[in-house]
Amino acid sequence: MSVLEANWKHDYITTNGIRLHYVTQGEGPLMLMLHGFPEFWYSWRHQIPEFAKYFKVVAVDLRGYNDSDKPKEQSAYVMDEFIKDIQGVIQGLGYEKCILVGHDWGGAIAWCFTYAHPEMVERLIILNIAHPAKFSEGLRTPVQLLKSSYVFLFQLPVLPEFLIQSLDYQLLENAFKGMAVNKNAFSQADIEAYKNAAAKRGALTAMLNYYRNIFQGQIFNKNWGVLEVPTLMIWGEKDTAQGKELTYGTEAYVRDLQIKYIPDCSHWVQQERPELVNQYMQEYLGL
Prior knowledge:
287 residues, alpha/beta, 8-stranded mixed beta sheet, 11 helices, globular, hydrolase, AB_hydrolase_fold, Alpha/beta hydrolase, Epox_hydrolase-like
């Protein structure tokens, strides 16, 4: 049986005027997982069964992705809306707070959500996405500007969609296998799952719209205070999209911070080194 066909419950929740798809397993306190680009709930396939032993694990498809609603307006893909989505998911599932886990774009949303609603996050776990203030600083350096050059390409209309769709979504396969240190972390079935999710009608433009609004939102236009929510950062050191140096100085923005670095591991940290990521999360949560 493939991971996509596993005995996990698929469900939908309506929040902030849209319907979001999610996968869930387990019972207990809520652990909410937010994926990045160009992924969907499936990027947490190695974590869901492990943490379902202790929590009600919910891995959501962010708006615009896979089986979640895909509003057509570009203006629908801004941080204020993402924050409302997550608030609605937590409350709609019948919880007041959660352990929030985010990677890449999901991590950016997790950072911003935790600043907006610290009372709703018991602990924050961030994987390979810098604190927004540190990312803003990084973009003032030539090294990080070069690493983030794809962000500027994605600002263009139409062309990014064309390039990604070309040759049966070959760029997506290149993104996963090309960036990964351990190429075997992604089976061909994994790659096909990501291609199929991106190929759903309206999904690709929705996914890119996150980037097309990035410079208008909270990430770059906010004075960041000190976060009081205990936070764990897990960082694959061979990330070609964000340099390890972006983690330096994060403690100035997070009062209770732990960072675990994983050498010889790429941006896709929870998929490439799932056993170690799970171990660090379990140790942090005292499981």
